[in-house]
Specification:
Elements: H1 2-10, H2 21-30, E1 38-42, H3 50-64, E2 69-73
Parallel strand pairs: 1-2
Organism: Clostridium segne
Domain Response regulatory: 1-76
Modified residues (4-aspartylphosphate): 42
């Protein structure tokens, strides 16, 4: 995660990190619509995996009319 974070920040992006899928969903739920342009997360995470988190975020996006793009990765 740290390497990805450094690369993204060096590219000028603002990065928000979560320790697991549940925290990612909670962060997204509390964010303003269209705050996140891309959501990039691992598939294998504790508490809630990336696939389940993606489903919840997509459902929230539809309720919020959010245009974030969700990307899953197997080895972050």
């Amino acid at each position: 995660m740290e390497i990805s974070r450094c690369i993204l920040e060096d590219s000028g992006m603002e990065v928000t990190c979560a320790v697991d899928g549940q925290e990612a969903v909670e962060i997204f739920e509390k964010s303003a619509p269209d705050y996140f342009g891309v959501i990039y997360m691992d598939v294998m995470m504790p508490r809630m995996n990336g696939l389940d988190a993606e489903k919840m975020i997509v459902a929230l996006k539809q309720c919020m009319a959010d245009n974030s793009d969700v990307k899953l990765h197997e080895d972050l």
